[in-house]
Design brief:
The protein has 71 residues and is an all-beta fold. The strands form three sheets. It has a two-stranded antiparallel ribbon with strand order 1-2. Strands 3-6 form a two-stranded antiparallel sheet. Strands 4-5 form a two-stranded antiparallel sheet. Strand 4 and strand 5 form a beta hairpin. The chain is globular, with a radius of gyration of 13 Å. The mean pLDDT is 90.
Length: 71
C-alpha cells in the first residue's frame, strides 16, 4: 500500500505502508521512553481476521513500521 496522512505541518503529507482507505483509531501520547499504548476492544466478528497497524508521529512527519496481528 501507499497511503498518505495529510497534516498542515507536513507539506508532502506523511507516507504510510497502509493503502487508502485506512482508519484512524485515535490518538495517544508516548511516555518519556517513547512507548505509547493504545487499547481498544474489537467486535467479536473480528476473530481470526488479520489487521495491520501503523503509528504516525505528526511533529516529525514520520510513521512507524507496518505491523500486523491476527485477532
Amino acid at each position: 500500500g501507499a497511503g498518505i496522512v495529510r497534516n498542515s505541518r507536513c507539506p508532502l503529507g506523511i507516507p504510510l505502508g497502509l493503502a487508502s482507505p485506512f482508519r484512524s483509531l485515535g490518538t495517544v501520547r508516548a511516555n518519556a521512553q517513547g512507548v505509547a499504548v493504545f487499547t481498544t476492544t474489537p467486535p467479536s466478528t473480528s476473530a481470526g481476521r488479520v489487521f495491520f497497524f501503523q503509528a504516525v508521529e505528526a511533529l516529525t512527519c514520520s510513521s512507524s513500521n507496518l505491523v500486523s496481528d491476527t485477532l
